[in-house]
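Changelog-adjacent note: as of this version, every example in the card shows the full chain rather than a window. The one below runs 274 residues end to end.
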Amino acid sequence: MSPRRGERAAPPPIGGEYDLRFASSQAAEGWEQLGRQADRNLRRAFDAIRADPRSRSAPERHHRLRGNLGTAAWKGEPLERWQYEVTGGGRIWYLIDDARRIAWITYAGTGHPKATEPGGNGSDGVVQVWPSITRMAHSRTTAQPADAQFVHDQWDARTRAHDIDGLLDLYLPHAILESPLVSRILDQASGVLRGHSELRPFFVRGTQGRPNELVRWYRTGDYMFDGHTLIWEYPRQTPDGDQVDLVEVMELDGARISHHRIYWGWFGAPLLQR
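Full-length structure tokens:
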């Protein structure tokens, strides 16, 4: 597509760089909105994707989407789909076209992507493919599949990084958390916490005093989501030996957690008594 009069001039890629092109007019409009909100961040995203669309230098911000979301059909070809987190809510989704050395921007915006139903076609012509997840019978829809994917990925990443502020940002201000670890760490009878003021000291002390077996944080990448509740497991058996076995159950309101329950398995539970 040739540029038209009045459009912004962009330099061509050089050397091994990739060209960034919009897959739809909606993506172009979202890009402009991101630019008005966070111009410096968007410029960094542009430079990073152009230099290396598969960069691993900042995996918490720049990574391939998981599961079937990580691949999408573009003009009949299956291409890798990646995400760049421009701001706390702003995202860029793009497809890597190695044959043409183009990163096709399929989504850009100041909020989390609101994708179509599984297997449907978006207005940009990209076939949306959702992860292979088990859907549970539920009457409420409070979040989209993209919200569940975001929380699934970011909760694990921010927990591993001991990013307390980032972790808290995933919870609504009035969120509830329930875990047997609460009683042990905070020396209280109840295992229930309410709101950021109670969650923060638990996260701070929890990252300092977790049993060593938790550091592996191994999981398969599979999860269950029904439009309201997100569930995944940290299984006991891992490629490197046993770890504390946990099940994370989260009720979502958009891309934030309203209620979080953590269940411990037989291997991990005895560690709570030490």
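Structural remarks: The first strand starts at residue 19 and ends at 22.
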